[in-house]
Design goal:
Elements: E1 4-9, H1 16-29, E2 36-41, H2 47-54, E3 59-63, H3 80-85, E4 90-93, H4 96-101, H5 106-118, E5 122-127, H6 131-135, H7 139-154, E6 163-166, H8 180-197, H9 199-204, E7 207-210, H10 218-222, E8 229-232, H11 239-247
Parallel strand pairs: 1-2, 1-8, 2-3, 3-4, 4-5, 5-6, 6-7, 7-8
Helix pairs in contact: 1-2, 1-11, 5-7, 7-8
The chain binds 1,3-dihydroxyacetonephosphate.
């Protein structure tokens, strides 16, 4: 049985004051979330503070990216070993904003994935199609290509060490959510593709949905058989909404 994971991607939002309020809000309602694991991925500079705020609460911690190299002259990057020092368990890899705004290729994303796994971080591995790609009927080809970049370099077994996040680009930050049927169809396709290579990996891997998931639509999305949680942007910045998503699992 796959656990449900609700992870918040704060993106480049927050301040020292607001993260205090946000984390205290999440902690105060956490005991009502009984069927999901919760995690937060703050901007890197706030990771130490958030770690302190988490204390011994059952909230996972993740970064929003990780360097593909172990250490050295890589200005602006964060090493997996550094993130591990601050008890990060997760690293978002290949978010569509990284891919589209900062030019991260499938190959670079796969290398970042490899470094995360090698270092004991769990990649929250983001994949998903643009609106243009969906409208031209190539959604499955796109997610397949993005996954193959990892499978072809690290084997299908590597996928068992990550959490996949299917995030249709057209649903991110737009208020437009994939319908439960649309999301389930892509999740089932992904699991089916993996099952053809390794049934055990396919059965084990959590596949989260991301893209305007909120307190109102979460229950229906999370009730789909192949949707194992959510990667939440905007709604993860409001404790009551983030908790409501967790409670609807
Ligand atoms: P929104 O929930 O704001 O659409 O963002 C989704 C996302 O990109 C999570 O990584």
């Amino acid at each position: 049985m796959r656990r449900t994971l609700i992870a918040g991607n704060w993106k480049m939002n927050g301040s020292l004051a607001s993260i205090n309020e946000l984390m205290n809000g999440i902690k105060s309602g956490l005991s009502d979330v009984t069927n999901a694991d919760m995690a937060v991925c703050p901007p890197a500079v706030y990771i130490p503070a958030v770690r302190e705020l988490i204390g011994d609460a059952h909230i996972g911690l993740g970064s929003q990216n990780v360097c593909d190299q172990a250490s050295g002259a890589f200005t602006g990057e964060l090493a997996a070993s550094m993130l591990k020092e601050f008890d990060c368990q997760y690293a978002i890899i290949g978010h569509s904003e990284r891919r589209s705004l900062y030019g991260e290729s499938d190959e670079l994303v796969a290398r970042r994935f490899a470094m995360a796994v090698e270092s004991g971080l769990i990649p929250l591995f983001c994949i998903g199609e643009t609106l243009e790609e969906r409208e031209s009927g190539v959604t499955e080809d796109v997610v397949s290509r993005q996954i193959d970049a990892v499978i072809n370099t690290q084997g299908v077994e590597a996928i068992a060490k990550c959490v996949i996040a299917y995030e249709p680009v057209w649903a991110i930050g737009t208020g437009k959510t994939a319908s439960p049927e649309q999301a389930q169809a892509v999740h089932a396709y992904i699991r089916g593709k993996l099952a053809a290579l390794n049934a055990e990996v396919a059965e084990k891997v959590q596949i989260l949905y991301g893209g305007s998931m909120n307190a109102g639509n979460a229950a229906e999305l999370l009730s789909q058989p192949d949707i194992d949680g959510g990667l939440i942007g905007g709604a993860s910045l409001k404790p009551e909404d983030f908790l409501a998503i967790g409670k609807s699992a």
